[in-house]
Each structure stands twice: as C-alpha cells, then as structure tokens.
Specification:
The protein is of the alpha/beta class and 243 residues long. It is built from eight helices and 13 strands. It binds zinc ion (ZN). The site of zinc ion has 6 residues, from loops.
Amino acid sequence: MEVAQGIHRLTQGVSNFYLIEDGGKVLLVDAGAPRDWDLLVGAVSSLGRALDDLEAVLLTHAHSDHTGFAERARTSANARVWVHQADAEVARGSKPGKNDGRAPTYLLRAEFYRTLFTLMRRGAMKIVPVQEVSTFAEGDTLDVPGRPRAVHAPGHTPGSAALLIEERRVLLSGDVLVTWNPLTGRVGPQIMPSGLNRDTPQALGSLDALSDVPADVVLPGHGEPWTGGTAEAVRQAKVAGPS
Ligand SMILES: [Zn+2]
C-alpha cells in the first residue's frame, strides 16, 4: 500500500516496515519480524522490482519486530544494514538492558495477547543477530535511496531514531512516536508503552527532537500513517503521556 510518494507500507498486523523507491533502487526502513520475508518478496515483485534492487535496510532501532529478517536481506539480497550506533551491539546479538515497565500491567488487555501471539508466530520473540551492521549518528544524511536524515530520539531504546525524507516531507518515526499502542490498543499519536521502553521519561523528552522536523506525513513503527504534521503529532503524544 502506497502511503506517501514512492513509499509503501508493509505490515503483519503489529509492526510496520516501509519500502522506499528512488530512481530504480529500493530502501527498506525496518525489516518486520523474522518470518516477514515473504511480505518483502511479494511487495518487491508487485512493484516490478527484483531483490537485487534492495540497496539497504535502515533500522529505526534494535527490537526483534523491527530488525526481523535484516540478516537475511543482508546475506541473500546483499543489502547493507544500518542502525544508530547506540543500538548496534544489540542488533549484533548482545543482550539489551532492562525495560522500565512491568508486563503484568498489560495482562488484562486483549490487545496484549493479540500482539504477543502475532509476534510469536512471526518469530519475533528474539533478535536474529545481524552479523555486519553499519552505524549512523544524530544528523547524518545517509547515501541510500531517499537520502534519509537521522534524528536521534532515545528512550524507547538508546539508539532509537526517526528518519526524515525531507524532499517528500515524510518522517519515518519508528517507535519514537507511534499511532497505535500494541499492548493497550489505544489509537492516536503516543510514545510506546512503558513495558517496552528502556526509559519512558527520556522517550517523552525525546519527542522535542521531532517537533521542528519539516514533515507532513509521519509513518510510525506501529499504527496508521499520520498526515497532520510532526508538530501536532508531538503535541498529542505529550498530552497522551506514558502508558
Ligand atoms: Zn520497539
């Protein structure tokens, strides 16, 4: 499904990942869950492209429902995999630090089980280590299709980043700002639930890094596209607060 000029959204129902076309080449922002490879292959061929056209995979952060099949893309499509330097070790397979919320808070929510079940079926309970990872830092413009610029916004993970495609006025916000809560089911701009964040107060504070970003469309890691601009999305996410 095309959600912005030359940008296609793929999803297995919980997390989104995006295919970005630029001059015959393709960039993937996030790589779904490990067993979402079939979604990629279907999308690439429906666009009349080959896997060889996939030049790079940019990860918004190192969680298993976003790093997904990145290693497979690296080895079988020869795509370079990128992540912010603060999440690189976890993407390579190191154990992440502890999150600051507790899962029992969500046990009474149907959405919690739906998300858990989908991610289990899709193999996303654990990161498939990416053997070779290139890293970026705050403010870097990457020489990959779409020429995205990294906006570092830590909290959900230490290396969480949003990616701006300035000429299309699109911000791929990863899990820095989402529009659907995978544990409570709440819809609308918000940060991720505490149970999935390394540092929730930091995640709320990091929203400020997005407010001046020149984008009309926000494409999140979870939930539907937002078309009301970054400043309004940030405002609503702050009002929503932690969950
Ligand atoms: Zn995440």
